[in-house]
Amino acid sequence: MCYFWNKLNRMKKILLFVVVLFSLQAVQAQSYERSYDHHDISISYSLFHPDQFQEVNTPMLDDMFQESGLRYTRDNYSSYGGLFLTYRHIFKNELFMWGITAGYSSSKSEIYNVGQFVGDLDRTFITAAIEWEYRYVNQGLVQVYSGVGLGFTYGTEELTSFNPGFESSTGNISTIAYQLNGVGIRVGKKFAGYLELGYGYKGLINFGFSIQVF
């Protein structure tokens, strides 16, 4: 009987040793998965900016077409997209991030007044903003996050008139800038590609390349 209990106690000790060993390996593996590189630098290209979906009306255009009852429209809209450079600081828990971003975008369209072609409208936008993000999935190569951004956009517009009844003109369309990032997916560790879906100064779709250092 004593032999049986001694053997059982020995098995318990061996089992405890195995559990502790596997626990230590699991902790070590988890630490290995975490990069602890807390500085993220990225460059991205964005599509479908708010200017494409908002009303074309601005003070400059209203002044030009006031006598015609503001019956002007925009057609044949095209955009070259936006280019953004972003820095993010990743907190030690690797869940929260904050950072700054700066970007440039532009668009081109045609302006018609009472059905008659007036000229080409060119707009440019330079944006600077602060961003906050939260990672709710951080598993190895895949990180999933959402976030918001708030800043300022310096915008200018120029109407080049081809209609003798109107003169060419320029105006300022600066405004508060915001970004609502519904979901972002980053695939990779130190070097990674990412895709973000949202609405604001980075458009509906924003994708690019990211590198995390020290």
Please outline the helices and strands:
Layout (H helix, E strand, L loop, with lengths): L1 H32 L5 E9 L11 H6 L7 E19 L5 E18 L2 E24 L2 E20 L7 E4 L2 E14 L2 E10 L4 E9 L1
Antiparallel strand pairs: 1-2, 1-9, 2-3, 3-4, 4-5, 5-6, 5-7, 7-8, 8-9
Descriptive report:
18% of the residues lie in helices and 59% in strands. It is of the alpha+beta class and 214 residues long. It folds into two domains: 1-33; 37-213, Porin (Beta Barrel), CATH 2.40.160. Strand 5 (142-161) and strand 6 form a beta hairpin. The chain is elongated.
In short:
With 214 residues, the chain is of the alpha+beta class.
CATH fold descriptor of the largest domain: Porin
Apparent shape: elongated
Helix content: 10-25%
By DSSP (H or I, 4+ residues per run), the number of helices equals 2
Structure keywords:
Porin, elongated, 214 residues, disordered N terminus, eight-stranded antiparallel barrel, alpha+beta, 2 helices
